Amino acid sequence: MVITVQPAIPFFQGNGYETWSTKMRTLFISEDLWELVDEGYAEEEMPRDAVKNVRMRDAKAFFLIQQAIAESIFPLISKATKSKEAWDAIQTEYQSTVENQVVDQDGDGIHTDIIAMDDSVYEAAAKGNIKFLTDISESEFQVQLSPKHNTVLHIACEFGETECVRWMLNLHSSSCSSSSSFLQRPNLKGDTPLTLQQGKDIWRW
Q: Which H helix or E strand runs over 50?
């Protein structure tokens, strides 16, 4: 007998938006719904026989958003009819801008410019989409950070995308210092890509 365990839905009451949105994005990716939430859909551009299925999947994503917010926040999405509309409404109200912040990320007194990670980059790293990542400048791999200051390498490690991790490490291997820094860069919790996947097959070459 197979027992299906439903993932817990992160709950948002108005505080900690960045953490909540990151958890929700991961949930949507795991359910193959993130593209609908992030990009939306236009029925007029779809084959007629595909519309019903897309509507059902979008309704599922919309329902997850409804279940994930407090009643005091619900009025923000009361007029939304699609998941993207609801997601964007909450994002507009609560997202804090982290683009172009200057932080002492490594704790060594050296200030580094960071850029808020694009949603499409997060999804590519989480799914191991090397083809998409090849279009990104190598220098942005370390300056594009998630709300928890995870790099693309952190994310690929967290989701167990072995080939993607190895590809990124090979990309940085031309510079030993750059590669070492990439591996040892901590996120806000102090976790490096190495500690996230310590003891797992992902590091066995």
A: helix 48-67
